[in-house]
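Ticket reopened. Same input as before:
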Amino acid sequence: MHELGIVLEVVKQVEEIARVNNLAKIDTLVLQIGELSSIVPYYIEELYPIAVEDSFLRDTLLRIETIPGIGECSSCGLSYHVKDSDYKCPDCKGSEWTVITGTEFMIKEILIESSGCQS
Amino acid sequence: MNVIEIKKRVYDRNDEKARVLRDELKAKGTFMMNLMSSPGSGKTTMVMGTINLLKNRCKIGVIEADLDSDVDALTVEKTGVRVIQLHSGGMCHLDAGMAREGLEALLYADLDFAIIENIGNLICPAQYDLGQSVNVMILSVPEGDDKPLKYPAMFEKVDVLLVSKTDTMEVFDFNLDILEKRVRKLNPSICIFPISAKYGDGMDVWCDYLLDAIENWK
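Engineering reply: fixed in the latest deploy. New output:
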């Protein structure tokens, strides 16, 4: 499954971040997922507990922020939410557009308690 | 609670591994083709046909990736080139780390041309750079000319589109002109080659293109 490999990769990268920063525990992991990224937040949330079960992130909460899929109309230059508008410009009905936001898949930040640092 | 800002693209690590691998392939003069398509599009038949036309002109190796079988590797082995089977362990795509594993198992350093047959899937493999020299996809005529509308990311990403099983064109409602328009809208510079690997139609034009690309890589 697409999302399982992705979650395992995220876990690996966050473990590495914890190691480099000498963190004993991470309370919350915040991911940003764009609406045009072909990654479905629902599946990431479903798979996350399984992926972290035997890892350093076992007790780490997951929070996902969705980034809207915004495109710029190639004909009239209007910026609009492409999925809500069925991929067509709501103004001039043009169907060609370029992405402004929405393809992101990022590890945005991690939250730790003040005592989370080992040194 | 303290916030540590990371702001890191999850794909960055793979992209960096791919960049390093591509540099190594360039230094060794091995041209690598990442071949993608849906299952049943004729990847293995096309690979066999390509090998048979090129094996006397350059040294070829093949990595067959599959969820869990070695059917394709055993078939390709009959052409006499070096073949290894890579199992993705249930994953729907390969990444640059797996590509490196495959190439190393193939002892690729003396090869002119390494073919990686990716997992049959039009969605996930489009997200991953393997370190390839060229991205090629196959769309077979029975799949229909509407696929660029359904899987735009894949058509945007590839350098070459092979339209396979052209011998079945009359049976299926497939319009090559409409397909080309749809594809070029997503990817204006893509090369499109119609082929029938079974009967050999178009295979010489495709192989001439490949041979040029392989020579230019050195």
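The longest helix of chain A spans residues 2-20. Chain A is about 25% helix and 30% strand. Please confirm and we'll close it.
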